[in-house]
Structure formats: C-alpha cells, structure tokens
What we know:
Helix content: over 70%
Structural class: mainly alpha
Number of helices: 10
Distance between the termini: 24 Å
Number of strands: 0
Mean pLDDT: 88
Largest sheet: none
Amino acid sequence: MREGSLVAFTVLTQAAAGTCAFLLAFEWRAARAGAGASVEAAALPILSFALVAALLGLAASFLHLGNPRNAVRALGNLGSSWLSREILLAALFSAALAAATLLRLRPGPAGFAAGFAHGFAAVAGFGLVVTMARAYRLRTVPPWDQRATPVAFFATTVALGALAVAAGLALRGSASTDPARGPIPLLATGLVVLVVALVSGLLWLRRLAGGSGAEREAFARTGRERRGLVAARLTLTALAVAAGLATRIAPDAAWPVVSALVLAFAAEAAGRVLFYEARVRSGL
C-alpha cells in the first residue's frame, strides 16, 4: 500500500490528540471530585503513550515526504494552504506534548507549567485534526470531498483517545469502586464512537457506489477489490466491542480494555487504508 506512511501519520497523530484531550478532561473531572491524586499516577504513562504516538506519526510523515526539508518549505504557504497549517500544528502539538510530559517527570504533583503545556497541546491537537480534515477536502478528489472525511478523522480521534486513556487507567489499577472515576465510561465512549465510525464508513462506501464516475471508480477500488479489508474492519470492530464487554466478567482486569484498544487501532487503520485507496481524481 503506497500510502502506508500517511495511514500511520493520520491514525497515530489523531490517537495522540484524542488521548491528550481525554486525559485533560478526565483529570479536570477527577480534581473537581476530589480524586485528582488517584489519576496523577496514571497521567505520565498515558501522556508518554500519546507522545510516542505523535512522534511516530511525525516520523511516518517524513517518510512520505522523502526529503524532510520539503516540510519546512511548505510552511511558507500558511495563509492559503491547509497542508502548511497541518505541518505547523503537528509540530506545535508534538512540542507542547513533549513539554507536558517532561514537566511531569519532576517529583510531586503537576504544576501550572505542566498543566498549561497539556492544555496547549490539547488545543493544538484539536486544530491539527481540523486542518487534516480540511487538507483532504479536495474538489479534484470527489471521494474525499465529503462530510464523511471530517467525521472519520474526528471519530478516530475520539475513539482511540478515549480507549487509550481507559487502557492507561486500567493498567495502573485505577478502576475505582466509583465507576465515574474508572476506565469503564471512557471504554464505553470509545467503543460507541468506534461503531459510529464503522457505520459512517459503510455509508460512505454506499454513497460512492451511487455517485459520480470518479466515486463509482473509487467504490470499485475499495468496496469491491478490497472486500477483505472491509470485512476485516467489520470483524476487528466487533472483536473490540466483545473485548470491552468482557469487562463485565472481569471488571478489575486490564486485558479487556487493552485488547479493545489494540483491536480498535487495527480497525481504524483498515478504514484509513480504504480511505486512501479511494483516491480517484476528477476534473483535472
């Protein structure tokens, strides 16, 4: 698959952005409930996961560019190019996330600087996902120039972000007796959005099948030629939901939550491959 680096870049950075935002929201809620200390121990590993995902995504994007200096040149079009804005926000997001992670390495509770860096990273991450979605709304690529594109990108962000924070809390033994402070609500949120992403992807394929010439060609390259990939996404999503439901049998175990995260990553990667396979240009 020629666009493997872009699949890695978009899925990993969107997962990192979602993880950063969900962790910030969860910490804020826990602090208001007087349980901030119980979340503090899990915050650094979760932020570290987000940072690694963001850096791996950036590395994958450089592989696609071939020459990293091209990224610097692209920054000269910030006023008119969504791709330039995407590169800038990816750099800002990664830098802020690194700062937030490093500042938490100091002993004691996170201070103002760490909180500010975390908040800035969450805002930059949201902006990054917006610019990604806008960069792919190309009139010359009808299969991408649809509302399904931002829906898919934000669904990946929310689903993987919520599941990553849930997995981090479960691994740190933060499954509180109060379910509102444990990973289960985040797990449920992530799985619901994962199913929504699957349904949205299937509706997108159906729309391509009944669309213009370029859209029908895109459907032939995805819904027909890559039927196995469509089936894989369906199966992986179902397995992720099944893993999440296993928490009802083993509520204190981390493996169902971690398994749901891994399976969800694979499902979203399969969906993103289909997205790139659908690139058919028109009107050139």
